[in-house]
Structures are given as structure tokens and as C-alpha cells.
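= Protein in question =
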Amino acid sequence: MGQVVNIFFINISIIYLLISLTFYVMRDVLPIQVSSPLAIRIGFGLSNGLIAVLLTINSIIVDGAKIDLRIIPFALAAAFAGPVGVTVAILTSVAVRLLTDGFSMIIMNGFVMIGIFLVIAVGLGRQSVRRGHSFAVYIAIGMALVLVRVVGNVSLDTFIDVFIPYFLMTSLGAWICYWGVKKLETHLWMFRLHTHRATVDELTGLPNRYMTLERLSEVELSGRPWALFVIDVDHFKQLNDTYGHRAGDEALRQIGETLRLNCPDGGFVGRYGGEEFLMVVEGAGEAVVALADAVVDVVRETPFTFEGETIPMTISIGASVADAEPSMLVFERADAALYAAKMSGRDQARLG
């Protein structure tokens, strides 16, 4: 009995470990659901199919009979990725069995299971069924299929000694795995959400101050030539006072997008704070002033319309070329150049 319990928990560990790896690889596309892109559903089904193969290899032996928990990954594939996921999962398992054992009734049973699960998956897809409930249905149907095959074909003693433990272990394992998978998915989703909020400016969608300075440090350590633009929106307080903060938000959003679209390849734009942005340009060299002037021009020439009224928007830029020195020194020169541009009438770029 102790060995059976040990192998049972090994099987549960296999499921949870490989599902954890799958979710980690797919963390940027969570949650996985029937409406996920086809490639995601196929990938999730393939992963669960491989889990089913490993569970078959690590079968639990009860009174000389082999039983396994592969119905759990099949149910997970069906509940999360729908008909596509469960079809790929079962086909993967069947293909491996076909390669290792040749054609047999086990293979035929696999195709029968595909057909049954597809019908169930399509039926549930037309209903408003919660994922946990659909998972329970797949587990119940899977165990019912096993029950149909064994009733009348095995002795009562075998049924009691082998298949009742199988049903109990499958039920317990299914609950453990679904609970763990659900918690894991929620954790990865929330981690991604909080990471996004901690590094991306909510208004403009650009890197926020923290991430901008982080990327600035990476550029500094790269050893490649680069230049820094410190960009400030002209007369922004006047815009807020005249048209309201909603107009100011819209202006910042548009200017941020304009800067992003006009940032050279290899560089990046981030919101430093308030109405101030930073643009890092790699390898600008002597063309840095011409590039800064071009950015000033494109912002001026991009119309900003708020509630039907076109409002002139301009920026001032302080630029500085890095010369194997700390990024803060480069920033200080660019910031001083920005101050000079503002004092000279705004809507222009200055090199510091």
C-alpha cells in the first residue's frame, strides 16, 4: 500500500511539474482558454499529451494490475483548451503508444475517447459552463468509460481491489491537480499584471520612470555609443488650466505615441515624469542635433484635437551625447540643454 501511495504522489508531481513549466512558458498568453490562439491550444494539448505518456510509463500497480491517471491531463486539456486541446493531447498519447506498442485495442480505445470527448467539448462549448465544472464532467465521463469497459469483464474481487482504488485516486488526484493548476495560473497572471503596472506608465503605455532608468543603465553598460534626449512639453500647465486635465492626459498620450513612432531603431522612449519624456538613441553621433530637430518638427506638425478644437502642441529637447561616462552626467548635460532651449523660446532642440 505504501508503494502505491508513493507512486500516486509521483504521478501527481509529474502532472503539476510539467503543467507548471507549460504555464511558465505560456505566461505571456494566459489565461489559456477555448478562445486562445490556435497555436496556444495546440501547444497546451501537446504538453498534456506528453504528461499522459509519462503517467502511462509510471503506472500504479495494484494487485498486479496497472492503472494510471492519464484521464487527468486529458481533462485539463479539454477544460482549458477545448476540443482542439483534448484532441491533440489524446492523439499525442495514442501516437506514442502506437510507436512503442504497435496497433492494438488500446489505440482503438484512444480514438473512441477522442470522439466522445470531442462531442462533450462541443456540447459544453455551447453552454455557459464554468471551467471547474467542465473539468469535473470530463473526469466523470473518463471514469465512466473505464467503468463501462470493466463491468462484467473482471471479477468482483478485482473490481474492489483494483478499480475502486483507481476511481478514488483519480478523483483525489483530479481535485489536487485542478486546484493547483488554477492557483498557479492565477499567480502567474497576477505576477504579469503587477509587473506590467510596476514598469509601464498607465497613461502613455511607455516604460515608466523606474523602467526607463533601468534601461538607461543597460545602455550605459553596453559600451555602445548613445545619446540622450530630455523632452519637455511646452506650456503644459497652460493647457491643463485652459482645457482641463483630461485634455492634458490626451496630449501626453498622443505625444508619447508620436515619440515612440519616431524613435530610431535600437532606441527607446520612456515617460520620466509629469510632462517630461526621455529618448535614448544608439549611435547617433554627429547627427544627434538633426535627429532632435526632426523630433521637434514632427511633434509640432502632428495635429492635436480635443473636443473638436485643434490645439497647437510643441516640445523642447535637451540632447547630450554620451562619452564613456555615467548616465547621470549625460542626463545632467541634457537637462541643462533643455533649460537653455526653454529659455530661448521653446519649440527647439539644444545640444549640451
Remarks:
- The chain has a mean pLDDT of 81.
- Residues 199 and 210 are 7 Å apart (CA to CA).
- The longest helix spans residues 156-199.
- Strands lie at 60-62, 65-67, 226-233, 268-273, 276-282, 305-306, 309-310, 315-321, 349-351.
